[in-house]
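Lab notebook, bench 4. Still working through the backlog of constructs that have no structural model yet. Next entry is a single chain of 366 residues. Request: give me the structure tokens for it.
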Amino acid sequence: MGLNNTNSTSVNAAEATLNLKHGAKAAFLYNVYLTRGVLAITMAVITSFSNGLVIFLVLMDPKKCLRSSPTWLLVASLALVDFAVGCGLEPTDAYYSLAVANRKKHSLVRKDLQSAAAFLLLSSTVLVMLITFDRHKAVSRPIQYPYSITKKRITISVSLVWIYCALLIFAIRRWGKELRNILFCAHIDLVVFITTGIFCRIVYLLRLQTSKLKRLSVSSDDASVVQASTRERKVTLTLATMLVVFLFCTMPWFIMMQIYDNCPICQKHWWILKLLFILFEANCAINPFLCTLRLPRYRVALRITLARWGFSSVVCRSLQQARRAYVLRLRSSSSGNQSSGKKKSLNSSISLPPVMTHHQQNIDNI
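Model written out:
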């Protein structure tokens, strides 16, 4: 399924072995395809739910703040592509794998599935790169950002991404059959390289801004310096998590796919390539949690939506009660510390030795 069939002859031979033999090898192939089918079903549920939730929040927009910035077009486009992966690509992948595992005929055309997988997954990775570039502009040029990143430019960018990916897949299918894996992997490698560079550039700019504030401020305890340092650590941790997850999901399959033809070990263990493709599809399920639902606006919108539907009334009530109890404990402990401090000061003044009181009176008289 997808472009993970680098050596089509070996895969076809494996499927033929599955249909002809009934020994240990047939059982092993059955387990491979069954595992992939079950994982594809699981990923389809998670991907459809997470990206469908993002699309629903954008359409509802309970506080009327999600569509105030042009960035929502990038977020909605990425969620739409990933939602198509969860609703179309992954269920089809599951059906194909389970059909092969159970030795049943299917009416799916391999080339059509490969083209759909390549288009959706390439579009998803390129849109992640555009979102990263958008955040880079917001950090590097915050004053010019509202004027340079407009709704019209983002709409044109998203349209160009979809058109270019569609034309690329069509050209590979029509004229570049022998070089399809090289061309596709080259584009993914370029996108991953650019995205990684932009991530590192954002972290560098944040550290540079924090160091400038520290040099301009009188002390390191200024509120602006503390706030900038906290923001830098938070954004750096978020970007590092996004980058690690992005590379972890995308690179293993692409690395193995690119060296497959020249790697006898990879050809021997071809089933690893089959299962790694599920990991690549998992990136579409994780994108909403890393790129969208971590943003404060979307979390507030989700909280309001759940509260309106009554799903979070009990949870919110229990959280409010716990917060009130915590505040009361803090107040009681602080008031107890203040009262004990007053008692100590009174006791020290009462138990002042007569010599010290006489010395203090002399100082006052002078």
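Notes after review: Confidence is low (pLDDT under 50) at residues 4-21, 343-366. The chain is about 85% helix and 0% strand. Flag for follow-up if needed.
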